[in-house]
Amino acid sequence: MTHIVSTALLGQVVNSGLTPPDPTTIENYGHLIIQALVALVTIWATVRKALQKPEEVVKVPVELVPVERAGNGGASNGHDGK
Predict the structure, then answer these.
(1) At residue 1, does pLDDT exceed 60?
(2) Is pLDDT at 79 greater than 60 in this prediction?
(3) Could you give the CA distance from residue 23 to residue 44 in angstroms, rounded to a whole number?
(4) How far is the C-alpha of 25 from the C-alpha of 13, rounded, in Å?
(5) Residue 70: CB partners within 8 Å, gap ≥ 6?
(6) What three-state secondary structure class fits 75?
(7) pLDDT at 16
(8) CB count, 10 Å around CB of 76?
(9) 19-51 as b/e: b if 16+ CB within 10 A
(10) Which conformational region is residue 53 in: left (phi greater than 0), alpha (psi within -120 to 50 degrees), or beta?
(11) How far, in Å, CA of 69 to CA of 82, rounded?
């Protein structure tokens, strides 16, 4: 008798375990997987950026910096006035 009951219970567990999930459950798991991947990539990029060596800043004397003069009273409209 116990063998019959245990076999019936095991059959119910196996049957319910092998039933495919409904589409909304699959969609929710898909959203969770995508959010987890985005979080991992964001964390990886942040850590990578934090561990980068800073770029070297080259100091140039002011005399060597090219400066354009505006010909129309300080306002520039993109034309050279010709």
Answers:
(1) yes
(2) no
(3) 32
(4) 20
(5) 76
(6) coil
(7) 63
(8) 13
(9) eeeeeeeeeeeeeeeeeeeeeeeeeeeeeeeee
(10) beta
(11) 14
Interacting residues of 76 by C-beta distance below 8 A, sequence separation 6+ = 70
- pLDDT tens readout for residues 3-53: 777 777 677 666 666 677 789 989 999 999 999 999 999 999 999 999 988
> Token pair 């092998």 is at which residue?
18
Q: Which residue has the higher pLDDT, 42 or 71?
A: 42
How far apart CA 47 and CA 56 sit, in angstroms, is 20
**The pLDDT of residue 54 is above 70:** yes
Tokens linked to 20: 């495919």
DSSP 17-53: HSSPPPHHHHHHHHHHHHHHHHHHHHHHHHHHHHTSP
